[in-house]
Amino acid sequence: MSDMEHLAPDDVSAYLDGELPPAEGDAARSHLEACPECRAQHDRLASVARALGALPRPVPSEGEREAWRAAVQAELAAGGSRPSSRAATPRWAWPAAAAAAVALIAGVGLFVARRPGASPPGVAAPTVVSPPTTGDLSPGAGGGQCHPEAVPQPRELTTGDIEKLVGQLVSDCAGKLQRRDVATRQRQFTAELSRGVPNTDACAKEVYDQMATPLIPVFAQPARFNSQDAVVIVFLTTLKQPATANDPLDSRQAFVLQLGDCAILDTATQF
Amino acid sequence: MTDDQLVQAYLAGRKEAFAELMARHEDRVYALAWRMMGNRQDALDASQEVFLQLLRKLDRYDSRAAFTTWLYRVASNVCYDQLRRRARQPVLSPESEPPPVEDPRWAEPFDAVDVRPELSRALGGLSEDFRTVVVLHDIEQLRYDDIAQILEIPVGTVKSRLSRGRHELAERLRNTLAEEERPR
């Protein structure tokens, strides 16, 4: 069989799952009947899949279920699901929503992205939320009026801060950037942020390599986290499935990355 | 009531609908969290965080996708976040506590060599990306296109990660699985 062309390992695995198209599946079956090497590989993978499928299913105890329910009850008592401004607010209500967002953010005063030069260095100021772009949908046109935000002053971060950051960041790019903008804006914004906050470029690339979702960076700031020098970068992304070219990037993911090797120290997602 | 109807009932003000939704899916969430996090305490913490995230974000659920797809996506993201927060591999030492098993279907001992400790350790040694796909497919029994939706990756990437994850497991378990497969 040494002169036989073997099946690709991914195809052996997919054949095992019945996930190959019919014609490819038939061809794989014929090949497996004739090729002991591929058949041995198939059998090894089948053993693994069988063993995984036979693992005992962990079941929570009644006390553990009660603890979850108590936590949920406490959350419900505190307000539960908050209305989503972007998803639930009709377009005519955007000015009111924007005013409400400004009031909220001004009250909190933490990690608010702003247009460059709009505020004194180190002082976060709110930016009014803008309605989604609906006009020009040509490639790269989205987000024409928005800018990434680099804040050069380092700050001490905690896990609570990073969660607040993704929950409260108001970027003037929110709702304007679309899936189709990723290729151009990712490069442009990464370069712009890196000019204001060193190491942003290298660490953002580390995130791009690890994450399969479309990401455009909109905020960067040097930081200290767990006594380590770091950079915090917030990306706009979309969790919509399937994402089309016109879908807005309306979710946020924050990463705290260690300077040097850009190891991920902390992360939080706003769904 | 369907999951979607429970979501709508909750959003309409019936708070007890969320409790029903939670009761339906808590075993599924806990099982995924256990296999992703690798130990009981972290699985409990992650599961609670999943339920709180669901509660906070339920108004963002898009009913064009199955509720379970969205549930798995939230749960996977919570586990990813917590794993990165810990910045370490799951704890899967030989001394680690085995998952509690109350379901008699799963309590029957293997009649061949018990590969479970080695398999659990090997699974915990996979990268997060590979482990997630392997868990969702081979343990949770989801199809490629469902996993692609949950993780927001192409189906081809699911196929590749699953294959590479399985090959890595097969390599790590070469001797153990050979022993298990031997006729007795």
Description:
The complex is a heterodimer of chains A (271) and B (184). Chain A is α/β, with parallel strands linked by helices and 271 residues long. Chain A has nine helices and six strands. Chain A has helices at 9-16, 22-34, 36-53, 62-77, 85-88, 94-108, 159-168, 182-196, 200-210, and strands spanning 149-150, 155-157, 216-225, 228-237, 251-258, 264-270. Chain A is extended, with a radius of gyration of 24 Å. By secondary structure, chain B is mostly helical. In chain B, 68% of the residues lie in helices and 0% in strands. Classes of the chains: A alpha/beta (271), B mainly alpha (184).
Task: Provide the descriptors you would attach to this structure in a database record.
heterodimer, A: 271 residues, alpha/beta, six-stranded mixed beta sheet, 9 helices, 6 strands, 15% strand, B: 184 residues, mainly alpha, elongated
Helical content of chain A (DSSP H or I, runs of 4+): 40-55%
| Overall outline of chain B | elongated
Provide the low-confidence segments of chain A as ranges.
82-141
Oligomer: heterodimer
Beginning-to-end CA distance, first to last residue of chain B? 49 Å
Task: Name the chain pair with the biggest interface and residue counts per chain.
Answer: A-B, 55 and 76 residues
The SSE string of chain B, one letter per element, is HHHHHHHHH
Secondary-structure-derived class of chain A? alpha/beta
Cα separation of the termini of chain A: 52 Å
Number of helices of chain A: 9
Q: How many separate helices of chain B?
A: 9
Give the strand content of chain B.
under 5%
- Secondary-structure element order of chain A, N to C: HHHHHHEEHHHEEEE
Low-confidence stretches of chain B: 88-97, 101-114
Estimate the mean pLDDT confidence of chain A. 73
Helix proportion range of chain B: 55-70%
